[in-house]
Amino acid sequence: MDKFLLQPVSSSKANGYVPQDKTFPKCELPSDNNEDENSFELLGNLMNVTKLLELAKLPNTNTEIQQIVLSPNFSFDDYRLMEVSPAIANEIESGSAKFVFRGELDDYPVLCSNKTTYLVREADTSNTLMVLSDLHFSKDVKRDEKCLKTIKMETVQMKYLVLSELKTVYLNRLKELLHEAEFQWMKVGEEPEVLTERRKMYTFDELLNVIQLSENELRNALEHLPVINYNGFLRLLSIEFCDRLLMEFIELMDDDNEPDISIHSVNVPSLYNSLKRRETERIIPYDAVEWMVRSHCNEEVKDGVHRFSVNERALCRSKASQLLRAAVRFELSEFEKLMEQLLPEGVQLKIEYLEGLALIDEELERGKTIRYLNVEDLPEGEIERLELLFTLRERWKVTEMRPFLSDICKTDREVNTLLTTQCRVAVINEERVLLGLK
């Protein structure tokens, strides 16, 4: 099933169907006359077909008769039937949307429109499904004239494909491909040497061929990743590059000699020029500076002018991620003091900013501690993720676990359904507590 799209066009003989003569098989019927020849042709012969119907005691009406025959190109394997919604059918018929199957040889197939991705599964049916070149239903047949119409049957199927919309966009595979040629924090002249050690760089169209997402979904995913267009290729900024660029950005916001760079107003060209002055030996693309501002600032357009101000939550999360990755665990009070020193003046950390990024535990000996746990690094599968979370902590409050399911469960209702289905739940002090998998 997973490779059905790549099956070669098979001949009729390969399907076990070996056509005989181009004529229809002969049928032996009792003869009403004394002719020696009592076998006669049915294909395209209205008189003989009428005699057959009379023999079967079917009503002889003055109407159109349709005769179904095998097409010369009849095949079982060259066709797949697919059930689609009326909306998709309308888009296909009108040509308003393009649909394409995406994936590599070992992938399960998905069907993508410009905006949506559908999982493709095969279903069985007890009915026999025929594909015909044409067929008149009762309201379409000619009732005032008796005639014989031959209909060619192209295939017969007892399975069909069903579609289900992909609700969650998974990015692990996209990240894996982009990691192959990360853009490093490197000096001028090092780039060609670095690229010789990498396996593959991708353009957007090349990614679209191997990532099982619609065009809009892929563009949206790339916008939420530290990805830039460099020399025609999409390059993922390395963790070191992002960390160093963030450090420079924060230092410039606290620099009184940089009036165009502050938490209230960030000028992108000024930031780029300042970075080039400070890091003369480093390759810092303008697109990377734009990404830094776009992902850490709020944008406001006034009188046609784009203005940026620091997004406190985004900046705190990036700096906290950088700090938490440097150690296994921090005491929460110590971590908060360090963050106060590292953040620019006027930016204050709030614990709620760290949801889905850090895990806060409370121990008798050490009190409250904090450690790095990024929802983006967790397994994509629901069961695998829950298993990992319960190895990190035996008991979870539902409110504590919810941020670590936010990417695979878009609503609180979906979270509650998953946890109720897969986890053992107890009510302790009037609060739901998860005790492990069922």
UniProtKB/TrEMBL annotation:
<dbReference type="GO" id="GO:0034088">
    <property type="term" value="P:maintenance of mitotic sister chromatid cohesion"/>
</dbReference>
<protein>
    <recommendedName>
        <fullName>Sister chromatid cohesion protein DCC1</fullName>
    </recommendedName>
</protein>
<dbReference type="GO" id="GO:0000775">
    <property type="term" value="C:chromosome, centromeric region"/>
</dbReference>
<dbReference type="GO" id="GO:0031390">
    <property type="term" value="C:Ctf18 RFC-like complex"/>
</dbReference>
<dbReference type="InterPro" id="IPR019128">
    <property type="entry name" value="Dcc1"/>
</dbReference>
<comment type="similarity">
    <text>Belongs to the DCC1 family.</text>
</comment>
<dbReference type="GO" id="GO:0006260">
    <property type="term" value="P:DNA replication"/>
</dbReference>
<dbReference type="Pfam" id="PF09724">
    <property type="entry name" value="Dcc1"/>
</dbReference>
<keyword id="KW-0235">DNA replication</keyword>
<dbReference type="GO" id="GO:0000785">
    <property type="term" value="C:chromatin"/>
</dbReference>
